[in-house]
Amino acid sequence: MNTFDDRTKRLLEEAIEAFLAASARIYFDPDEIGAQLLAQGEIEPTLPEAVLEARIQKALMLWVKARLEAELSFNQQFPDKPELPWLHKMLVGARLKELASARIVRRGKGFNINELNATYYGRKIVDGLGHSRRRSVLDASEFEALRDACAKIKLQLPEIVEPTVTERFFASDEEKLGEEPS
User: Fold this and answer.
1) Rounded to whole angstroms, what are the CA distances from 97 to 3, 65, 68, 89, 94?
2) How many CB atoms lie within 10 A of CB 78?
3) N or C, which terminus of the chain has less Cβ within 10 Å?
4) pTM given for the model
5) Which DSSP string do the residues of 121-142 spell out, in sequence order?
6) Are strands 110-112 and 159-162 parallel, antiparallel or unpaired?
7) Residues in contact with 113: Cβ distance below 8 Å, sequence separation at least 6, in sequence order
């Protein structure tokens, strides 16, 4: 069956309206959700309304899950706490996964937090410390405050040390000195 009857269309539209109310900034093609629904199995016009609603919710959930797996930053398009409980749980998981993947790069005496700023919860942490959205480099004392804030929520941010130009220059000389003449 490739089309929906009137009752199924109405239920699908209601579920999509509820989803859009919970996530006003998301654009998606309702036909995509319909295709997900059809992929779940044959839709019988005789199915009870509760079963159809459950299948529609599952189709929406699978669509959101696929989008979040493909692109973690998709979670930032949703409000802080959407009204749909299943959506809220999925977003919290995706946002924590996104935060855990952020790296802080130490360059000389500064700490580059661009990747942290690009995450949903990372932005909340940095805002809580009073830094502007455009701030991308922290000094040692500001970084310690960030590290302490992360320790409160039991989060250890991965820190990568990137050598400075001078360190790279001298490192190449040390490598040359360590080689034995042929």
Assistant:
1) 37, 13, 10, 12, 5
2) 23
3) C
4) 0.68
5) HHHHHHHHTT--TT--EE-HHH
6) unpaired
7) 104, 122, 126, 135, 136, 137, 138, 146
Chain segment 120-163, per-residue pLDDT in tens: 998 998 888 888 778 888 888 888 888 888 888 888 877 787 77
- Coil/strand/helix, residue 161: strand
C-alpha to C-alpha distance for 74 and 66, rounded to whole angstroms: 10
Q: How far apart are CA 104 and CA 84, in angstroms?
A: 33
**Please, what's the b/e burial string for 53-70 (b: 16 or more CB within 10 A of its CB; e: otherwise)?**
eebbbebbbebbeebbee
Give residue 32's pLDDT: 63
Residue 92 is predicted with a pLDDT of 92
Which among 35, 31, 40, 28 has a CA at the least distance from the CA of 70?
28
**25 alpha carbon, distance to own chain's centre:** 15
Q: Are 68 and 74 in contact (CB under 8 A)?
A: yes
C-beta separation of 150 from 130 below 8 A: no
- Cβ atoms 79, 87 nearer than 8 A: no
